[in-house]
Here is the input.
Amino acid sequence: MVALTEVKASNALINDATAPRVAVFVSGTAGIGKLTLKALVETGASTRIYLVGRKSAEERTRAFIDELHAINARAEVIWTEAEVSLLAETKRVCGLIKSKEPRVDLLFLTTGYAPFGKRTETAEGVEVAQSLEYYTRVLFIQHLLPVLRQAEAPRVISVLAGGMESTWVDLDDIDLKRPGNFWGGKAQLQYGTMNSVGLDKLAQLNSDVTFIHSSPGWVSTGNVLRGRDAGSITDWLMWLVLEPLVRLFSMTDDASAQRNLFQCTSASFGGRGVPWTGKPGVNTRGNKAAGVFLAKYTCDSVENAKTMAALREKAQQKIWDHTQEMLRPYL
Here is the structure.
């Protein structure tokens, strides 16, 4: 475990030279995205941040942006409206960002929620949580790779379930469409594993980009209740049992923000960023170079080597081919 004091000491070294010059926060209007974005602004560094969120969040987010400007007038935070559960909207907003920025240093992805309710699809026919937790994220990465590659130390962070991969991924029904095949625990395991498999493939194809799939630990953002069926027995149990447990065992908002900011900037992951003299992270292929790192909420990296090797052999190509087929109309 990287001690929080060490994390904060590293973050205190963030300056104009080591902060991301241009960052994109997708779903930065609440929860971990919002906490991390604020922590970045509070460093005082000069940075430009595209904050992507839904129309319904605009009013409160503009007030948040005013607050950030008062904290650090050198940070420019640009409200960017998009309903990114829709892949067409993701394509549109990526085109907008690319039209304005020749380079992007950091892409920070936190879209999604725990799908403990019934299976619900977007207008494009994709299960909502799967779109947010996997397809949207991969689509953002693929669209922004040309400008990420223009940065000196490009980094992509997907916050979901790094280190929790399983070989029990369902390859016969990747989108969990068959009757009775969709339920919360299975969906989260499926989407989390797909994240690591997809990022591992992207890392193979883009050796100059550092990818991190992180597990945020317990953070009381209210997100655990978002995907429930209101009034159901599951809803009642989550409200009565799970949500109080999350509040009881969660780390503080500040600890979460600082740890995620460390992952955004520290040379612990891939050797580029704020200098780090502690134990370096190790990627899924057992080395310290850029690749994909599975980061625990403690800021340690885990190889999960046996599982990742098995997934590469048996699942990766099928998942990647399916992903590209799904995303082809939006690439």
About this structure: Residues 4-330 form a domain with the Rossmann fold fold (CATH 3.40.50.720). The mean pLDDT is 92. The CA atoms of residues 163 and 217 lie 11 Å apart.
